[in-house]
Amino acid sequence: MTVLQVKHLQKVFFPGTENERHVLKNINLQVDQGDFISVIGNNGAGKSTLLNAIAGTLKADAGEIDLEKHNVSKKTVAYRSRYMSRVFQDPKMGTVGDLTVLQNLILAKSHTQTINLKWYQKKTDIVYFKALLESLNMGLENFLGTQVKYLSGGQRQALSLLMATLSKPKLLLLDEHTAALDPKTSQEVMKITEKIVTKEKLTTMMITHKMTDALKYGNRLVMIQNGQIKLDVKGEAKKNLDATQLLQKFE
After folding, report:
1. pTM of the full predicted structure?
2. CA proximity to 153, closest of 178, 136, 187, 131
3. Which of 79, 116, 145, 205 is the most buried (most CB within 10 A)?
């Protein structure tokens, strides 16, 4: 089943000026249910622009985006959030720093519902949240009443990932979500990512600059260069791809 269909997507920045940049050039991409796609490419290749266009935070100049067979090309970010979730590079963007870990999880679970965070004490949910946090193996279950701004970057990003996947989105977008973390913490968050994506069977697109992660994680690898898809491999073809071969594709 097709979850996402991107058709003839175009984006030009500063059109008609000396700074004109054609960032997306007739991008066509089909994402099937269960795909875990690592998206790589040079700086300025168009990776984040593509994710922004899919999420709705950036309007494409031409082309169409179908999500779950719904044309969302002209739909708002709020509308698209019914079907997709996103984790950003900056851990601070996915959480509310002045709220506690528990309050952040309650917000994520309630999504569009109006609730009173101060008086919310549903014990079944608290037990559920604690069990989820324990599964991350980062000690977050001991910080339910702690304001998120006091967590480490890795803990905060792991919480962001958990919050983004609570609603079991049809599409999960990971926008270099480990780039701001140190190497050890980055690998811990990647293990958590793989665990959640596999357990919940989430269709995922992950932008990364780390070739090792692109090769190690997911069933599919897409390389974007100069606003176009230069490489799209999956299954055995991806498994047989090594770092040297991938580096050559950048040249």
Report:
1. 0.92
2. 178
3. 205
